[in-house]
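Moderator note: this is an archived Q&A kept for reference. The question asked for a predicted structure of one protein chain; the sequence and the answer are reproduced below.
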Amino acid sequence: MGKVALSLVVVSVLLASDVEAQRRAAPKRKPAPPPPVQTDQAVVKCQESLGTGLKTGAVYCFVLAGRDPAQGVIVSIPPHHGSATLLFDLHNRHTYSEEEVRAGRGFAKYTAVVGVLTMTGELVSRAGVQSEFRTAGDLYDRISGGAGPGGVKAVAPLGHEEVVVTIPEGVEQVSILGEVLDATTVAGRETATPGRTVAIVSNARVEYRPAPPSRKR
């Protein structure tokens, strides 16, 4: 073999070895980490609003009894990677009467159950709240914009239960509807009937990992 041919062979071997070494040394690409979890106040559509709380500043929505998701409290869930978590505060509904309290007839007891449904009517979860009323100090909040002393409404949220619901991936709206009401008040026994207020919700938040932007074709 001539010197020139031998040199070409040596160079080829060295180049091949260098390429192989670079190939072996090249680090493997790690998959991108998932986006961090973020918490946002949820966008809520009330079918019937109670108003804004003087103590908390929260907006309170009536939860009506029914089976049509379009008639519930509709909560928007941002596009999310994996499951998301919906959190909201659940309260009983109480009509406060100073006269009844002074007369010793102010006691009331409430049990309410609501369902969280997809907009196609599939049940995601249920939640309940139970509370008792004896004095004004039992009320969770008072609502501005009423004709009562201090400009408050007679209807007020009573009791407080923080509800946590896992929302499946792909679900971007849910509806909160009333299912059960068992109330004992000065007016007697009250139960849920279609369109009647079963409970009150406030302070809806969503914890989620934002979904990656869709790829443009």
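Archived answer notes: The helical segments are 3-25, 98-102.
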